[in-house]
Amino acid sequence: MMYLRKKAILLASLLVAAGLSIAAGLVSARSLTLAAEDDFYPFSAVRDGELVGFVPALTRAAFNAVGTEVQFQTGPFSRVLYLVESGRLIGGFTGAIDDSNRSAFHWHKTPIGTVQLAIWARTGEAGKGLGVEDLEGQDVSVTRGFFNTDEVDQNPRINRIVAPSDESSLKMLALGRSDFALVTDKIGQTILRGKAESAAERKVEIVGFIDEVDLYVFFSKTHPKGKAAAELFQRGLEAIISNGTYERLARQWLPDPAPVASE
């Protein structure tokens, strides 16, 4: 009987410890898998069969800083959203917070970076310092699944033409199939710099900015450890900001800010 009592006490202790471990989330986890978008270069993209970019490099470094390895499952952004929303994967990237998704995911506190949503026009064919009001009544190419601010997305006077990628959006503009394109400054600049064969090269320019958008990794509310993963990532992000890793990765992957076309 004494043996059974001791065994029961030991079992109860283990159950309590397990409960505390679950409540603590991923404190003891050694690995997890995130959904990664495959066409958002230089932030996250598949090149020659390999996931590259600022966000996977940063995410790996942040989780490694808190003793957790991370693996990635790549796909288009719509697939990333599905995997995270359904809880099939614990988190994914890259996201921007707006009214439509603020309560749909667990978000970490510190943004992983910012982008400026730029208005692009064909070189020499538009004014300078343009804003949202200048897009009204115009054909504007936008990238499928990307948040263009509520000011744009909820404006019925802007005729949005959806393109499958940022590069396609700029090509549509360069070929005269749209009047303007909305592509973030860093991504558009990278497309023009890195693809000599691009139909858009030297044919488009930034003529205004709409807003600065913060970027995040987002975590599932339907996955049992989604909230804990967001908290763990925040801790790791703070660590790599402090030790200089974040700055090194930003210099490695992100181009200098793109200038607005001069008067």
Describe the structure.
This protein is an alpha/beta fold and 263 residues long. Helix content is 35%, strand content 28%. The chain has eight helices and twelve strands. It has helices spanning 2-23, 54-65, 77-85, 150-153, 166-174, 185-194, 226-242, 245-253; strands at 31-37, 39-40, 44-47, 50-52, 69-75, 91-95, 105-107, 113-122, 139-143, 159-163, 180-184, 204-220. Strands 1, 5, 6, 7, 8, 9, 10, 11 and 12 form a nine-stranded mixed beta sheet that branches. A three-stranded antiparallel beta sheet has the order 2-3-4. Helix 4 (150-153) links the parallel strand 9 and strand 10. Helix 2 crosses helix 7. It is globular, with a radius of gyration of 22 Å. It starts with a helix and ends in a 10-residue tail after the last helix. Mean pLDDT is 85; it is low at 1-28 and 258-263.
SSE layout and pairing:
Elements: H1 2-23, E1 31-37, E2 39-40, E3 44-47, E4 50-52, H2 54-65, E5 69-75, H3 77-85, E6 91-95, E7 105-107, E8 113-122, E9 139-143, H4 150-153, E10 159-163, H5 166-174, E11 180-184, H6 185-194, E12 204-220, H7 226-242, H8 245-253
Parallel strand pairs: 1-5, 1-6, 9-10, 9-11
Antiparallel strand pairs: 2-3, 3-4, 6-12, 7-12, 8-11, 8-12
Features:
about 260 residues, alpha/beta, three-stranded antiparallel beta sheet, globular
